Amino acid sequence: MRWRGRRESDNIQDMRGSGGGGMGRGFPGGMGGRQIRFPTGRGGGGISMSTIIILVVLFFALKACGIDPLQILAGDPGGSSVPGGGGQVTQTEPGTNAGPSDEMKQFVGVVLAETEDVWNGIFQAEGAQYSEPQLVMFSGQVQSACGFASSASGPFYCPSDRKVYLDTTFFEQLDRQFGASGDFAQAYVIAHEVGHHVQNLIGVLPKFNQMRQQMSEVEANQMSMRVELQADCFAGVWGHYTEQKGLLEQGDVEEALNAAQQIGDDTLQKKMQGYVVPESFNHGTSAQRQKWFAKGLQSGKLSDCDTFNNPI
Ligand SMILES: [Zn+2]
């Protein structure tokens, strides 16, 4: 991915090295939300279809007004950068990610900024306003409004505080353990979590969290898959516009598709436990994850990401 020299988001909170205590504030807790995790094979969630469908369809219907998001997105040459990252920055843990001038943070900052540009454009085209999520980089452990999380959780999105949580050592794990290397594989992970944020804004996640309470675990897992696959599709939509800006390099799409393949529930389970339990799938199989990412990537249209009204 051609990311160097581009704008870095100022919505990054660098909590690496702070051991998780840094967020300090107690949250009201309660039903606030569950972590929407990335790939590590647990903790999904559910929704029964009908209501969510209405919400999603409504949103897509709004979109029919016919403004081309592309025109809005086109005007971003990647200008100013925000080197310091704002007030919440703590020290960077020596060693792990602190390469020369902290390349990891720059990369994450640029990818997040690119998601901001794309989603701001898409929402504007709908006559809506996108509210940008914060992204917390952490190491070891972190306190979120959705609870305590450690590196073992994998990246996740917390609907209650509207933040993406990213332990960047996950990228090493992605590479070594899951066999998904490459910067665009990492970008896909970030874009997927931002996809959950979009779902939060358009009402999908709140409905999901509400409805899962009346669902059996199996039902909840099935609905979780639809939520996750939609986030993959949204990541693909982001990829679509990123490609149009000329930021993709040879092999980038393959990197993302390979990542989607490697973190499919079936592939993960085979690798981790040697066998597969389809009822426990909550993110989607490798084939499904690839399919929905590719769908978004090809068309760039949210309406092609309706995982609730279509077979997955
Ligand atoms: Zn997810």
Describe this structure as you would to a colleague.
This protein is an alpha/beta fold. The protein is 45% helix and 9% strand. The protein has 10 helices and 7 strands. The protein has helices at residues 49-62, 69-74, 103-125, 169-176, 183-201, 204-211, 217-244, 252-262, 265-273, 286-299, and strands at 12-15, 36-37, 134-138, 141-144, 147-150, 156-158, 163-167. It has a 5-stranded mixed β-sheet. Strands 4-5 form a two-stranded antiparallel ribbon. Helix 3 packs across helix 5, helix 5 packs across helix 8 and helix 8 runs antiparallel to helix 10. It binds zinc ion. Zinc ion (ZN) binds next to helix 5 and helix 7.
Q: How would you summarize what this structure contains?
A:
Helix content is 45%, strand content 9%. By secondary structure, the protein is an alpha/beta fold.
Pick out the low-confidence regions: 20-32, 40-48, 62-98
Quaternary class: single chain
Helix content: 40-55%
Main sheet attributes: strand count, strand direction, barrel closure: 5 strands, mixed
Order of helices and strands: EEHHHEEEEEHHHHHHH
The number of helical segments is 10
Strand order of the largest sheet: 1-3-7-6-2
Radius of gyration, in Å, reads 18 Å
Residue share in β-strands = 5-15%
Report the mean per-residue pLDDT as an integer.
Answer: 80
Which ligands occur here? zinc ion
Question: What characteristic shape results from the CA principal axes?
Answer: globular
Q: What structural class do helix, strand and pairing data support?
A: alpha/beta
The rounded distance between the terminal residues' Cα atoms is: 29 Å
